[in-house]
Write a structure and sequence with these properties.
It contains four helices and five strands. The protein is of the alpha/beta class. It is globular, with a radius of gyration of 13 Å. The chain starts with 5 loop residues before the first strand and ends with a helix. The protein has a five-stranded mixed beta sheet.
Length: 117
C-alpha cells in the first residue's frame, strides 16, 4: 500500500504579510506531524491554505487545522482556508470547524478579506 503524502507549495509574500500555501495530497493521520512542524514555523502574519489539492481529510487533519489555527491566533497571526474540496467541506461542516476557521471560495477572496480587515 502506498504511503500517504502531502506536498506543501508556498507562494511568495508580496509585501502584505500574506502567504498562500497550496496543499496537494492527503491531510490525514500519516501526514499531520510534518504538516504541523512545517506550518508552525511560518512567520507570515496571515496564512491562506489553498485546499484545492487535498484529496482526503480525516479527523487527524481536522485536529491539525484547529491546532494550527489556535497556535497562530495565540501568536497574533491569522489562518484562513480557501478552495475547499467537497469532501473537505463536508468533514469540516460536520465537525463544526467552519464556524471557527474563516474559509473562502477562492484564494483571492481570502487574501482580499484579510487586506480589508
Amino acid at each position: 500500500m502506498e504511503s500517504a503524502k502531502l506536498e506543501l507549495r508556498q507562494g511568495q509574500d508580496n509585501g502584505t504579510g500574506n502567504i498562500v500555501i497550496r496543499l496537494n495530497g492527503k491531510l490525514s493521520l500519516e501526514t499531520v506531524n510534518s504538516f504541523l512542524q512545517t506550518l508552525r514555523q511560518e512567520q507570515a502574519k496571515h496564512v491562506v491554505l489553498d485546499m484545492s489539492g487535498v484529496s482526503f481529510l480525516d479527523s487527524a487533519g481536522v485536529g491539525a487545522l484547529v491546532s494550527l489555527f489556535i497556535t497562530r491566533r495565540h501568536a497574533g497571526k491569522t489562518l484562513a482556508l480557501a478552495n475547499l474540496t467537497k469532501q473537505a467541506m463536508a468533514v469540516l461542516q460536520l465537525s463544526g470547524i467552519l464556524k471557527l476557521i474563516p474559509n473562502y471560495p477562492t484564494v483571492e477572496a481570502a487574501v482580499n478579506a484579510r487586506e480589508k480587515a
